[in-house]
Amino acid sequence: MDSRHFLTASFVLLAGLPAAGQSPAPDPVAPPAAATPLDAVTTTGTRTPTVSGDSAVPVSVLRRGDILDRDARSVSETIRDVPGVEISGAPRTTAMEPLIRGLGSDRIVFRVDGARNNFNAGHRGRMFIDPELLRQIDVLRGPGSTLYGSGAIGGVIAMRTIEPDDIIQPGNDLGAYLRGGYQSQGSMWRGLAAGAARVDDFAALAAISGFNNQNLTDGPGNTIPYSADRVANGLARLQWRPGNHSFDLSGIMFRDSHVIPIAANTATTQSVTDRITEQQVYTLRYSYADPDLPWLNPQIVAYHNHVLLQERRQTGTRARDTTDLTTNGIDAQNTSRFALFGWDNHTLTVGTEFYRDEQEGTQNGRPRAQFPSASQEVFAVFLQDQVAIGDLTLVGALRYDAFSQSAAGNLPGNDVDRLSPKVSAAYQLLPWLQPYVSYAEAFRAPSLTELYVAGQHFPGNVFVPNPTLQPETSHNIEAGVNLRFSDVLRDGDRLRMRVTAFRNTIDNFIEQLVFTRTTVSRNVRTARISGVEAELQYDAGSWFAAVSASALRGDNLTDDQPLASVPAARTTLSGGYRFLEDGVVVGARWQLVATQDRNPTNIPGLAQETPGYGLLDIYASWRPTFAPNLRFDVGVDNLFDQAYRRSTWNSSPPPPFYETGRNIRGAVTLTF
């Protein structure tokens, strides 16, 4: 579908920029918001509902209002202000990927409505969804294999799409939401249209969103080549909630069409391809909750996730490539709440997960060795017990994963298994002070491509498969403190703060080594990443402020070199004022990034220093008191047109362009 046709048929909209972690004003499509994001409820860190700022797991939550206010083209851009998170890759939408605590790619688990997204095919991106269709994004920082299995060494990003209750206003059975807008960067048009209806125990939703932009420009005015994009995304959902039961059937359809380099996450302009990316995710969810049966709270998700890339190369051989991955899985758990001795309370979660990946790559209809035909089956069981004894909360968890991996041809199979334990303790020392400590292990099984890749890497160099790769394993020690205050400067205000320090040691680190004639993946490193993260959020109703900061250090302990993927220290300051009687909000966000000069000297082409920079964004929104179903937004990103690069794609010699320059945005939203 041509997203411009949809957007033109819609209406023009302006979109503003929020302060980091803040929603300037509640959005009609959003559920009632907590005072700060650290008060938001999340299930990602423990698989049971927990207030983000009260757990021993560092989880940052972006709610519906935060997502729409950022008006970003990708999930990576949406979460860029979360402490410890950096965007990897040149500014091309689908190719950009997040790093969490210096780890990215297969070292982060992505889930959409409970469905795993395991796609990874060198330089082609991993997340294919328009953020406008999301109601919440949870970012778990640090190892999460105890609950989510292989890949959660860096963390977990869990996304939830919008539901009928997000569209239908209280007291109504029908609802609609329209949003459209324009951005000066790339002359981008975008929009969202959603409708929902409820009849007795049934509810249904349909939504479509998309954007269309030309090439972007950087701060000095240079064109960022091959950054034009055209995205269309649809969502359909049917819910049935008879009594204490809940059934939810949903389908997500994504299509992206653009001309882009094959290695799109680098600054290259070579080996260009006309690419169409399509993804379909179908999920069926069931849950049961009866207050009279605290020992029975099952939740089951069955899913099908299919990603297909079709590429027609514009240079060289003019070959036609396909990259295809299908994941089918089921994730089931039950949570029981009980007391054993009268002075303790248990929240016991027991679950199992099974999924199967099948991948295939072709070139001109024949098998493509760079994305080998291969499959894997994964079976897991896990258990977690959260015990509350007075002001002390103890958590113990253990997960067992078994992998069976194989490829077409005569290559040997690979069978691995792994136990992932975790323990944590949090103590409510004072009503406003909760320190905690935790220890967690995580792992990542080698991907099918790492095991079995072959064929040409570039002229004169070929991939060599390595079916003997061993899983990466990590050992993470973490300590932190949660602080909660109310009525600090005025009655009813809220101040929340979390500070975390960690050290994550990774053994059998899988590295791709490029030699003169061959490229091979090997277990060659022990790596260590340590750091400090902080979040502070204050909301007094009429005004708000937030600070997020992170400082990380990564080292290759085998070669005694810094790790290349660890981002520079960063602090984001934000704040704003709400003119409550007039429905007006004004605010700003200032991101300060230090120079990154800790890069390995033994990797050719890597920039040895990436200069620091500062970015100022401003915004304003107006919801007229005489028309509360309307909202107008304006905003300016990168107000001073700063020329900067992130260290994750800077190189030597320097690329011919920088990150995206000044962007003027505007939006209008209508609900009824």
TrEMBL record:
Residues 54-156 form the TonB-dependent receptor plug domain. It is a multi-pass membrane protein. Keywords: Cell outer membrane, Membrane, Receptor, Signal, TonB box, Transmembrane, Transmembrane beta strand, Transport. The keyword Signal applies. SUPFAM superfamilies: Porins (SSF56935). Pfam families: Plug, TonB_dep_Rec_b-barrel. PROSITE patterns: TONB_DEPENDENT_REC_3. Its main location: membrane. Gene3D superfamilies: TonB-dependent receptor, beta-barrel domain (2.40.170.20), TonB-dependent receptor, plug domain (2.170.130.10). Residues 264-639 form the TonB-dependent receptor-like beta-barrel domain. Coiled coil: none annotated. It comes from the Bacteria. It is found in: Cell outer membrane. Belongs to the TonB-dependent receptor family. NCBIfam families: TonB-hemin (TIGR01785), TonB-hemlactrns (TIGR01786). This is TonB-dependent receptor. The gene is hmuA.
